[in-house]
Please model this.
Amino acid sequence: MVLLSMNNGHLKINMEHETRGMLLGIVAVSAFGLTLPATKLVIPYLDPLFIGLGRAVLATLFAVIFLVWFRQSLPTKKQVYRLIIIALGVVIGFPVFSSWAMQYVPASHGGVVVGLVPLATAIAGVLISHERPSIVFWLVGCVGCLMVISYTLLQGAGELHMADVALLLSVISAAVGYAVGAKLSKELGGWQVICWALVIAFPFILIPAMIYAPEDLFALPVSVYGGFLYLALISQLFAFFVWYKGLALGGIARVSQTQLLQPFMTIFASVLMLGELIDLQTAIFALFIVATVWLSKQMPIKQKI
Model:
C-alpha cells in the first residue's frame, strides 16, 4: 500500500511537471511566433547579418546584468562546451539563417517551414538525452513533418528555394540548441543557459555586427526600433527563460511539440503586423499541423534508465 501510494505520488508529480512544462512551452512559442514577422518588418532597413548578430549583441548586455546581479558562478569546462553548441545553434545559426531567408519569402511561409522544429528537436532530444518516444509519437511527428515538406514544395512549384534551404538550416540549428539547452538547464537553470550562451558568443559576433550595422541608426523608422528590440529582448532572451524551463520540466520531446503551434501564431502575426494575405492552402496546412499538437500530447514518452 505504501509503495503504491509512493508510485501514485511520483506519477502525480511527473504529470504536474509535464503540464507546467507544456504551459511554459506554449507561452514561449507564443513569443517565438512573432520572430519571423518582426524580422520581415526590419529586413528592408537592416542587413540580415546585423539582424541575426546585432540582436544577440544587445541581448548580451542584459544577460551580463542578470548574471552579475544574481551572482552566478562561472560554468564548468564541460558546461562551456555545451554552451558553445547552444550559442552556435540559437545565438548565431537560427537568427542568421532565418533573417537571410526573410529577404525572399513571406513570414507566413517561413512560419510553416519552421514547423519542422518540433520533430527535429525530438530527434535531437533522443540523441543527447534519455527519452524514448513511442512509435505512435514518431508517426504523428512524421505526419507533421511531411505536411510541412508538402506545403513547401507546393508553394515553390515543386522546387525548393534557397530561402527554404536557409530555413531548414535554421530548423537544425534551433533543434540542436533547444535540446542541448534543455538538458543543461537542469544543471544551470533555464535563464542562466541562454545568458551564458550569449556571453560566450559575444566576442565572436560583436565585430561582424558592427561591420554590418546601418550607417545612420537615427534615420530608421520607429517601427524598426520596435521590431529589433523585440528580436533582441524577447526572441533572443526572455522567451528562452521560459522555453528552457518548460523543456526541462516536461521533457524535450513532448514540450517541443508545442512549437507545432508556431506556424499558426506566425501566420496570425503576419496578417496583423505586415498585412500579408494568407491563401487557403497556407491556412489549411497550418490548421492540420496545429492539430498534431493535441495528438502528440497523448503519446507516451519514457525515460531511459
Q: What stands out?
A: The first strand starts at residue 131 and ends at 133. The chain has 13 helices and two strands. The chain has a mean pLDDT of 84.
